[in-house]
Design a protein that fits this description.
Layout: H1 2-27, E1 30-43, H2 45-50, E2 53-58, E3 62-70, H3 71-76, E4 83-87, E5 94-99, E6 101-103, E7 109-113, E8 117-136, E9 144-151, E10 155-161, H4 162-165, E11 170-175, E12 185-194, E13 204-206, E14 210-219
Parallel strand pairs: 1-4, 8-11
Antiparallel strand pairs: 1-3, 2-8, 3-7, 4-6, 5-8, 8-10, 9-14, 10-13, 11-12, 12-14
Length: 224
């Protein structure tokens, strides 16, 4: 009688453990998820600057990362929780094959990543002066025209890799549509480096990130 009771207790315990494992497996099973276009950040760029060098190009600005873990933990992960970096501390002039380091939250693991290394090309760091050009977005009536009365900057310095800086023709300030009126007003606009066609040039720095523009919407009329 006593032995049967012990046997029943052992069987009950084993069944309970099996049921617990089954429920856990069904409710919170192992899962994996692909995260696309995780941005790759450059660290220790100041080391290059101290040695008059700058990054010209990076072969992998984003990567895809697959994570694995329990479904509940995977569901907590957002792309911003995945940190991919390239350390430039030991980079030299020319072509560098550098490791892409990926850090993820605890309780999940990296199953795979689309690239382990990136080709980083480093050039001499140079600078030059470029004009600040203001443009106005939107459409205006035939009898109206936006006019720049004054701007606090006429030129800025641009810094970066020699090949990239060479492409920069001017610093562009674009006044947003519908922000200009018939009354004279001051508008603070962001500046970005642009080529001769007005397309944005990345991977350079400007001595100022914005310009203060005094402008108005002037009236036009035709006279003999």
């Amino acid at each position: 009688m006593l032995e049967n009771k012990k046997l029943n207790m052992i069987l009950s315990l084993l069944i309970a453990i099996a049921l617990w494992a089954f429920v856990i497996g069904e409710v919170n099973p192992e899962a994996s998820r692909l995260y696309r276009d995780v941005p790759v950040k450059l660290v220790n760029e100041e080391t290059l600057e101290q040695n008059d060098m700058a990054v010209y190009s990076v072969s992998n600005r984003t990567i895809n990362v697959t994570l694995s873990g329990t479904r509940s933990e995977i569901n907590k992960i957002d792309i911003k929780d995945i940190v991919a970096t390239i350390d430039l501390e030991d980079a030299v002039m020319g072509e560098n094959h550098l490791q892409i380091n990926v850090k993820v939250p605890n309780k999940v693991e990296i199953e795979s990543q689309s690239a382990d290394k990136s080709v980083v090309i480093v050039e001499e760091r140079v600078s030059k002066t470029v004009p600040v050009e203001v443009s106005y977005e939107g459409t205006f009536d035939n009898e109206e025209e936006p006019v720049t009365v004054e701007q606090n900057l006429s030129t800025v310095m641009v810094y970066g890799a020699a090949s990239t800086v060479d492409q920069v023709a001017f610093a562009s300030a674009r006044v947003p549509e519908n922000s200009i009126t018939a009354e004279i007003q001051e508008i603070r606009c962001d500046l970005f480096a642009a080529n001769s066609g007005g397309q944005r040039i990345f991977n350079v720095e400007l001595s100022s990130s914005e310009v203060l523009i005094t402008c108005e919407l002037a009236k036009l009329k035709t006279v003999p």
